[in-house]
Amino acid sequence: MPDIALTGCTPEPLMNYLKALGIFRLVAEQADSEARLSWSGGVAHLSTALDHDGLARFFLEAYEPTPIVGPWNGGSGFYEGGSAPLDAIARSTVDRLTTYRSTINQIRTFVPKSKPKDTEKASLLTRCRAELADVLVPWLDACFVLGEDGPAYFPLLGTGGNDGRLEFTNNFMQRLADAIPFAEEAQSTSRTTQLLRSSLFDDALPELTKSAVGQFNPGGIGGPNGTQGKFEAASAVNPWDFILMIEGALLLAGAVARRLGSTALSRSVFPFTVETVAVGYGSSATNEETRDGSRAEIWLPLWSNPTSFEEAKHLFAEGRAQLGRRQASNAVEFALAVNLLGIDRGIGSFTRYGLLKRNGLAFLAAPIGRILVTHRPQARLLDDPPLVSWIDRLRAACRDKNRTPVRYQSALRHIDRSMYEFAVRSERGNDPKYLLEVLRALGSAERTMADGLAFCEDKHIRPMSGLSPQWLIDAAPSGDAGREFRLAASLASIMAERKTELGGLRTHLEPVVQASKWVNWSPGSTSAVWSRRPLAENLSAVLVRRLMESDRAGVSGCALRARVFAPLNDVIAFIDERTDDEALADLLWGLIGLDWNSNEFRRRSFRRQQAEMLHSPGVTPVPAAFGLIRLTLTQLRLAAEPARNRVDGEDRWRVVTNTDLPSITTTPRAAPFLALAGGDVARAELLAARRLWSDRIVPFGWTNRQQRARHHSEFAADPTRLLAACLFPLSSPSLSRLARQSLSPPLSVD
């Protein structure tokens, strides 16, 4: 079957895309039912038994126009003014307009004498849908759907086939008069043939007809600097472009009526039409997310495999991107659905159009991006129901742009931008980098919510919670790039102490109370100590507070039971100020939203993956003061290293959990950490050494009273940072490493 490159039909502007659909639909329905359409090389390709000349001859001689009418609109020609195009078709004698003529005559039998009022309009729409010929149903479905709350209009066609003063149906009739003869004896002119070939094949273009084109071709609307030699240019259009564009819009009608109940937002019930989210293009502004600034977004598919008309009709009839069990309702969700193969019809990419307010008060179909269909399973993290529900609440709270404080709108915009950038990038790898940006945006937003409890209560926004533990695997970068993530994960995983009222670390960040996986605000809480201070100061305050509450709960030392342990090398990097504190803080606030009580942590395969992703290779020297002081934070059971593991036959300490082994149990005290909080590293080290000495454990360099008296710390790190580093939960092997480095070999263990 010959392949015709429709070089006049490109994905952009919107007029040219719809024109390709119009050519395809009309050829398949009226000339060649085996026709196929595809997109490649930046143009549409039509596979058909017709050749170039045959295709042109079909439109010039045989094409039967769809009866495009809009009796519910005042400018349709059925009422005062603007009736000349309608009358011209009604008086026509050519066979190809027979259905058009009969439709006009039928409508004239039941339309009111004057433009219908709002109360009459719904009744008229219902009658048109019920009584007009089946050939009109696609046009009617493309204009409106009827629901319990009245008609909903497809943003592509304005408000039911008109856009302000521009009446599409009346203009369609006028363009038909420019393109095809209305009398049986008349013939198409050479100019009409040239215009058609220009529309189909981008041939040399004669002078265009001065006419409004509407939102479909922003470059053709004229205006200032629209031409050379004049200050302003008039709006001009190729009549065939307009005709084929309107004919193509009918393919987007599909079975939209069955989806009306899928969402409360009428924009989303039409094919590939979603709410605007102002991200992903340079001119984006938050006011474009309101109905005054944007009508909607339309994501139109491009496919490379030749597709039959029935297949294409089914694609547009389905007309949605599935996100989990629900339909994508906005641009960010649509982009994520593309990643998750919510669209699996062989589509290669989507052209994204925003019906945005431009050029004064006019809405124009602005192309705002080409999105490749790329399978990214990690996008399921962003389709997690608890996360989606939380973002939906925030989005609903920010819908009134004039009354919502800017900080909440900025938080939502940051989330949308990071999610969209994750979804639409062209490369397939490096997912953790983009997921980290999403997690940081979520953390920043949660911190903003925690500072506005009155807003959250008013808008029914709960703390972010219940997120999938899979974040720990899919979002974890490797090597040094993952330091902040690994450290944040260890802090966020500090859990509530069993059989006490001591909550997890989250209770020290924000005023919350936790029950199972769900979290609620607790405005009266006194545990939260996080503020706008630097990270190290906040972590230090958290440690001191947790020490106090652990003592009150009857816990010896500081309660640091955690799901994830911080790699010791990463902790040393934090002490040495080789970490990004801002990123670490954002990630911490994001990771506290994980469901740390999930049964997922009990799966052996998950624990293995988690250990691999959160592993930090390499050995870094541990500052002596940190090792000594950290050993006094929690209660430890120390035993002698087994003979087979000893180095050079020398005894070493190790941390054990087996109570049957001969061991010494340490007695933690808060004093060294209170000294650190006061900025005195030397005293903190002295108090830690004395505490261990009292437990019959001798630190290096503290073998007798004389040495203890002369000992002083040469540790040069910031004491606040050293104190903050003690908060990171460490594994038994890491604590054993600190013991081997900081403590003298055991003499005997009773």
| Rounded Rg | 35 Å
What about the largest sheet? 4 strands, antiparallel
What oligomerization state is this entry in? single chain
N-to-C span:
92 Å
Bin the strand percentage. 5-15%
Report a brief summary of the structure:
This protein is α+β, with helices and mostly antiparallel strands. Helix content is 40%, strand content 12%.
Note down, in words, how this protein is organized.
With 750 residues, the protein is α+β, with helices and mostly antiparallel strands. The protein is built from 28 helices and 23 strands. The strands form nine sheets. The protein has a four-stranded antiparallel beta sheet. The protein has a four-stranded antiparallel beta sheet with strand order 12-13-17-18, covered by helices on one side. It has a three-stranded antiparallel beta sheet with strand order 22-21-23.
What is the fold's blueprint, element by element?
Elements: E1 3-6, H1 14-30, E2 36-40, E3 43-47, H2 52-62, H3 84-90, H4 98-108, H5 118-131, H6 137-143, E4 144-147, E5 150-153, E6 162-163, E7 166-167, H7 168-179, H8 190-201, E8 209-210, E9 223-224, E10 232-233, E11 236-237, H9 239-249, E12 273-274, E13 294-303, E14 307-308, H10 309-318, E15 322-323, E16 326-327, H11 331-339, E17 347-358, E18 362-372, H12 385-397, H13 406-424, H14 431-450, H15 453-459, H16 471-474, H17 483-492, H18 506-509, E19 512-515, E20 518-521, H19 535-552, H20 568-575, H21 581-591, H22 604-613, H23 624-630, E21 637-640, E22 653-655, E23 664-665, H24 671-677, H25 681-694, H26 705-710, H27 719-725, H28 732-742
Antiparallel strand pairs: 1-3, 2-3, 2-14, 4-5, 6-7, 8-11, 9-10, 12-13, 13-17, 15-16, 17-18, 19-20, 21-22, 21-23
